[in-house]
Amino acid sequence: MAIGNRLSTRFFDQGLELLAQEGYAGFKLIPLCDALEVSTGAFYHSFTSWKDYTTQLLEYWKLERTTRLVEIAEANPQASDRLDTLLTMTIDLPHRAEAAIRVWSQTDADVAEVQRSVDQGRYAVIYPAFLELVGDPQLAEHYARTGMYLLIGFEQADSLQSKETLRWSLQQVKDAATAT
Which of 59, 64, 95, 150 is the most buried (most CB within 10 A)? Predict the structure, then answer.
């Protein structure tokens, strides 16, 4: 996998940007290469095919936007601090790109599997934090799922997006759990 390669990383970052700007329908090789000002030959020097690229792009997204964020959050020993860290990092996710990936996942089983894995990875870090705060597994599940639903809904509501409202909403969930 070429994730460590600087050129590959540029392709991945630009791919996420292209998904954010054009949506899944506009996610194509030529616009990607044009945005990077490279030839398709440079693309095929780094990737064997478009499928190879998209597979690696999704793994890069999962690693950078879930696995690494979870590791950072889990470094906090206190549940409340983990949730604060996650809230801050959630605001900075590439929301429009993630919305496009969700659309893409409706037509591609491999993408759907990565999307499920990302959702499960995110849930797997917030549920234990809420459980530590509230002590009740069912209530912790409700809080964790509510947080996930807020994020997913925010990403799907393109015309209504307000990061401040997302921050406020997620903070309300955390505050409600803390008050329990």
Answer: 95
